[in-house]
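User: Predict RRM domain-containing protein's structure from this.
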Amino acid sequence: MEGDGSQTTSGSPNDSQHETGKMFIGGLSWQTSPDSLRDYFSKFGEIRECMVMRDPTTKRSRGFGFITFADAASVDKVLAHPHHELDSKMIDPKVAFPRRAQPKPVDL
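Assistant:
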């Protein structure tokens, strides 16, 4: 059948670059907790997962984390705002890409 939508996933990889709703959040304050990160980003949509990455030895924040929205359209809402501030620090939310999809650095 034509028009059944079966070809919607056959587009270029960029068409679904943030289909998962996952974002990398850089520039976090050392004091930022998963709860404060969730509170800030919940105004953009329902959050499925929220984590602040910590050093395994010291347990101190590594200054970045990840947010996964229930609806991938929430990523666009976040990206539509040019400035984000949390815990008195400018943070840098970006679309998260799987590690295998990132280009490998090339030594010249």
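Confidence is low (pLDDT under 50) at residues 1-18.
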